[in-house]
Write a structure and sequence with these properties.
Elements: H1 18-80, H2 86-114, H3 121-139
Helix pairs in contact: 1-2, 1-3
Length: 140
C-alpha cells in the first residue's frame, strides 16, 4: 500500500442501456399523456356541469319573465285602450315588444361572437409546460 489516495468517482449501479432509457422515456411520456387527457376530461366535465346548471336556471328565469312580459303587455294594452281604441293600443304594445326583442337579439349575438371557445385552459397550460420541459431536457 502506497500513500496515494483514490480519487476515482464512486461507481453507480444504475447503468442502463439506451434501449432501457428509451423504453422508460416512452412509458413516462405515455403516462404523462394519459394524465393530461384525464385532467382535460375532468376540467371539461366540471365546466359542462356548471354550464348545465346555469343554463337550466336561465331557462327557468326566461320562462317566468316571458309570463310576466305577457301580463305586462296585457296591462299596457288595457291602459292604452283608455285613451285609444283597443286595436291601436294592441298594435303599439306589439311593436314595442318586437323592438325590444330585436335589441335583445342583437345584444345576444354580439355576446356569442365575443365568447371564447370552450377549451380546457389549465390542461393546455400544463401540456405546454410539459412540452417545454421535455425540450429543455432533450437539449441537455
Amino acid at each position: 500500500m502506497t500513500g496515494t489516495t483514490d480519487t476515482a468517482r464512486p461507481v453507480r449501479d444504475e447503468h442502463h442501456s439506451v434501449g432501457e432509457l428509451v423504453s422508460q422515456a416512452t412509458e413516462q411520456l405515455s403516462h404523462l399523456v394519459r394524465q393530461e387527457v384525464a385532467l382535460a376530461k375532468e376540467e371539461l366535465a366540471a365546466k359542462g356541469r356548471r354550464a348545465g346548471r346555469g343554463g337550466g336556471l336561465l331557462g327557468a328565469a326566461g320562462a317566468v319573465a316571458y309570463a310576466g312580459l305577457l301580463a305586462l303587455a296585457g296591462t299596457a294594452t288595457a291602459a292604452l285602450s283608455l285613451t285609444l281604441s283597443v286595436w291601436a293600443a294592441a298594435l303599439i304594445v306589439t311593436g314595442a315588444l318586437f323592438l325590444f326583442a330585436g335589441l335583445l337579439a342583437a345584444a345576444g349575438r354580439a355576446q356569442l361572437r365575443r365568447a371564447a371557445p370552450p377549451r380546457p385552459e389549465e390542461t393546455l397550460g400544463s401540456v405546454r409546460a410539459d412540452v417545454e420541459e421535455i425540450r429543455e431536457r432533450a437539449h441537455r
